[in-house]
């Protein structure tokens, strides 16, 4: 949480676009799978007492929209 709060995670993510090593390429599929499981578990902990469906849908749509815009800008179309 502190990494996200201090924007450290953004720096790590951006550096990952340029700094790639061969040994890390073999670990990426496993790491992303475990990161997805961890994100699902943490989201479940947040939603134990319920959530607002409309706010969640708007947040999800905004996240997908931001991903599309940034992906288009970074890859040149």
> Residue ranges: pLDDT <50 for 5 or more in a row?
none
Shape: extended
Structural class of the secondary structure composition?
Answer: mainly alpha
Q: Quick check: average pLDDT?
A: 80
User: How do the helices and strands follow one another from N- to C-terminus?
Assistant: HHHH
Residue share in helix: over 70%
Oligomer state equals single chain
Q: How many structural domains can be distinguished in the coordinates?
A: 2
Beta-strand percentage range: under 5%
Radius of gyration: 15 Å
Q: How would you characterize the largest beta sheet?
A: none
DSSP strand tally? 0
**Euclidean distance between termini CA atoms:** 32 Å
Detail the topology: elements first, then pairings.
Layout lengths: L1 H4 L2 H11 L3 H25 L6 H23 L2
Question: Short summary of the structure?
Answer:
The protein has helices at residues 2-5, 8-18, 22-46, 53-75. With 77 residues, it is an all-alpha fold. It has two domains: 1-46, no CATH class; 50-77.
Write up this protein.
The protein is mainly alpha-helical. The chain has two domains: 1-46, no CATH class; 50-77. 82% of the residues lie in helices and 0% in strands. The mean pLDDT is 80.
List key phrases describing it.
77 residues; mainly alpha
